[in-house]
């Protein structure tokens, strides 16, 4: 699979996963609110206050790791193979240390 | 201090409503303003040109940026409107507000990092490169419109706080606030505003967090030392006094529509995107999300505890308050449990929130006018003159917002959410699809923005009363029903018009003309490889919009 396709799919998956965990209002109205207490709160309340944001942090971390390691590495290799290292910085401005 | 007088009213409610002693609260607020102006003045020496003025020379690190974005994004509403709506709408509003948290990660994932790599000042700068001058001007006008609507609510909120604090009339309060805010933004530019906003966030968090420890302790919560999650032991009593507090109330469509407005709307908000453009690198921009989620999650959870405690306290004491006073719930709680001085710090936190957001709006307007419009019309102006235009645009925007706020329109209470709906339908699709597809073009973008904007405008209950999207009450007032129609229509228009325009020879649309730009913004080499050129994802997206549109036009 080409790098840009992987990048697009990773971005789409990350966006949908974040939306999925954070917009639990949709799931709770479709499937009902779980009969479970966490730290004294009904589960759905706890999820919206803390569980969702923590899940968001973890999901974003996975996306970040994938993009900064795998995808950026492949882009560097592409630049190296075409002899255009730093091409992405051409439009950038002073102060850039672009990846 | 002759102008300061105690504002205790004649006992409308059986608890303290306003300050009985203003010396310490006003001292706190004056010191806070002096610090903000001091930071602005100190940072002013860094401003050498428009790049420094509008994007802080692209030097801001991820911690400062994460805190600054959080403050800009939370606004005065976090202290007043959010608590009020949590008290009023309860659990569903929590679901709504949590959606808002999505916007910054989605901005970074979907376009923030690419536009930062491109060196854009605003989304309109990107539109100029991607779609040409006409779309750049349309986008700049949309940005100015949306930012003015958003700033209006902040100005009025700040003026109301000044009114309550000093006992001045509304007009005087409004113009004093306008002068203070405009002066601070003019001096600071993005450099000073970024560092000030980061400080403002921490003032906001401590002003919500620490006083809530005292409140929860006195309400009998064993977890009072950590307000965000420490009040679980009060839940059983809450369920007795307010059995409906944890109900989801609305149906699935309501939450879906809220996702469109509250998550996809802020994605198009330039004052948020611009913060990512100030990052010292693309990598730093990505890291900003971690700090943002961490600090904003903490702030939100704290604010939810305020709303919970407010409802709990009213139920426990048997108090009732007027709907119009729900905005002041956080102040009432702190008056009741902590007194004047601590409530003064809470008010300072609310003011910090308002300042941070409105400064972001004014800088976005300034960048749109002083950079994007000038470049779109290809005016030959020097860098110094461009920066001067930036200053003038900020002063003009402050004056315009103050003048509109003098006699605010009837829809004011929902102007912010209306701005979100317009942004979701008219701005977000144009930017996001422009980044991820080489097949969309200027004709599609212009048609999409026009359709999205006009649909929200026409279906809103505040523009043409006789035309609506079927919703009633809160659903209609928040513009939720309109976005369920406007958003899918906007995407459908964008895709269909773009693909048709490719086939009209006289329009000279060539998807390959974007190839270099798209490679550059995504960080690929200029190697003549075609990327993001398939029409299939666009067609799938357009097909997915059909059931959403059908869902949106069903009776609510």
From TrEMBL, chain A:
Transmembrane portions of the chain: 43-63
Domain of life of the source: Archaea
Keyword Transmembrane helix: yes
Keywords of the record: Membrane, Transmembrane, Transmembrane helix
Protein name: Solute:sodium symporter small subunit
Protein source organism: Natronorubrum thiooxidans
Automatic annotation (TrEMBL), chain B:
The protein's name: Na+(Or H+)/acetate symporter ActP
Pfam families, sorted: SSF
GO CC term (a single one): plasma membrane
Originating species: Natronorubrum thiooxidans
Claim: Repressor is one of the keywords in the record: no
TM ranges: 22-42, 63-87, 93-111, 131-152, 172-194, 201-219, 254-277, 289-315, 335-355, 389-406, 412-436, 443-464, 476-501, 535-553
Entry superkingdom: Archaea
Family under the similarity heading: Belongs to the sodium:solute symporter (SSF) (TC 2.A.21) family.
GO annotation, biological process: sodium ion transport
Gene Ontology terms, MF aspect: symporter activity
Record's subcellular location: Cell membrane
Membrane topology: Multi-pass membrane protein
Keyword terms of this UniProt record: Cell membrane, Ion transport, Membrane, Sodium, Sodium transport, Symport, Transmembrane, Transmembrane helix, Transport
């Amino acid at each position: 699979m080409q790098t840009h396709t992987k990048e697009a799919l990773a971005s789409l998956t990350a966006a949908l996963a974040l939306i999925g965990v954070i917009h639990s209002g949709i799931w709770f109205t479709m499937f009902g609110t779980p009969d479970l207490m966490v730290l004294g709160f009904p589960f759905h309340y706890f999820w919206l206050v803390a569980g969702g944001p923590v899940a968001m942090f973890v999901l974003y971390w996975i996306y970040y790791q994938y993009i900064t390691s795998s995808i950026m590495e492949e882009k560097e290799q592409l630049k190296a193979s075409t002899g255009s290292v730093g091409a992405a910085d051409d439009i950038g401005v002073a102060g850039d240390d672009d990846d | 201090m002759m102008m300061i007088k105690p504002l205790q009213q004649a006992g409308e409610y059986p608890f303290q409503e306003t300050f009985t002693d203003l010396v310490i609260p006003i001292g706190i607020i004056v010191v806070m303003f002096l610090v903000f102006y001091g930071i602005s003045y100190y940072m002013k020496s860094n401003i050498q040109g428009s790049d420094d003025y509008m994007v802080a020379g692209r030097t801001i690190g991820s911690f400062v940026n994460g805190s600054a974005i959080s403050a800009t994004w939370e606004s005065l509403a976090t202290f007043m409107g959010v608590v009020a709506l949590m008290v009023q709408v309860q659990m569903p509003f929590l679901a709504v507000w949590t959606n808002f948290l999505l916007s910054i990660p989605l901005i970074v994932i979907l376009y923030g990092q690419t536009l930062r790599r491109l060196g854009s000042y605003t989304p309109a700068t990107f539109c100029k490169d991607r779609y040409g001058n006409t779309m750049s001007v349309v986008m700049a006008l949309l940005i100015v419109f949306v930012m003015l609507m958003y700033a209006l609510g902040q100005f009025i909120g700040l003026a109301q706080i000044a009114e309550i604090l000093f006992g001045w009339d509304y007009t005087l309060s409004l113009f004093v606030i306008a002068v203070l805010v405009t002066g601070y933004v003019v001096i600071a530019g993005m450099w000073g505003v970024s560092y000030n906003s980061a400080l403002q966030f921490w003032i906001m968090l401590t002003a919500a967090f620490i006083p809530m420890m005292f409140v929860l302790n006195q309400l009998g919560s064993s977890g009072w030392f950590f307000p965000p999650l420490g009040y679980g032991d009060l839940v059983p009593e809450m369920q007795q006094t307010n059995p409906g507090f944890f109900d989801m109330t609305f149906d699935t469509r309501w939450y879906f529509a809220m996702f469109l407005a509250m998550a996809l709307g802020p994605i198009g908000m330039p004052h948020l995107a611009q913060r990512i453009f100030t990052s010292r690198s693309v990598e730093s921009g990505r890291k900003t999300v971690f700090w943002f989620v961490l600090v904003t999650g903490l702030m939100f959870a704290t604010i939810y505890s305020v709303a919970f405690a407010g409802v709990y306290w009213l139920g426990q004491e048997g108090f009732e308050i007027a709907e119009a006073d729900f905005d002041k719930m956080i102040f009432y709680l702190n008056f009741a449990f902590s007194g004047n001085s601590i409530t003064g710090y809470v008010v300072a936190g609310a003011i910090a929130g308002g300042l941070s957001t409105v400064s972001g709006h004014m800088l976005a307007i300034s960048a749109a006018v002083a950079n994007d419009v000038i470049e779109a019309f290809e005016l030959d102006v020097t860098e110094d003159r461009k920066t001067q235009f930036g200053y003038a645009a900020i002063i003009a925007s402050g004056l315009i917002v103050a003048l509109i706020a003098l006699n605010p329109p009837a829809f004011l209470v929902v102007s912010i959410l209306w701005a979100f709906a317009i942004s979701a339908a008219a701005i977000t699709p144009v930017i996001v699809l422009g980044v991820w597809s080489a097949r969309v073009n200027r004709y599609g973008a212009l048609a999409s923005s026009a359709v999205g904007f006009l649909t929200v405008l026409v279906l809103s209950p505040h523009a043409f009363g006789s035309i609506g999207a079927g919703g009633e009450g809160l659903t209609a007032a928040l513009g939720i029903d309109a976005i369920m129609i406007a958003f899918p229509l906007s995407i459908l228009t964008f895709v269909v018009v773009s693909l048709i325009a490719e086939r009209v020879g006289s329009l000279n649309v060539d998807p390959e003309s974007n190839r270099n730009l798209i490679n550059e913004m995504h960080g690929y080499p200029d190697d003549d490889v075609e990327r993001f050129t398939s029409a299939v994802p666009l067609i799938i997206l357009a097909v997915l919009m059909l059931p959403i549109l059908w869902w949106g036009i069903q009776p609510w």
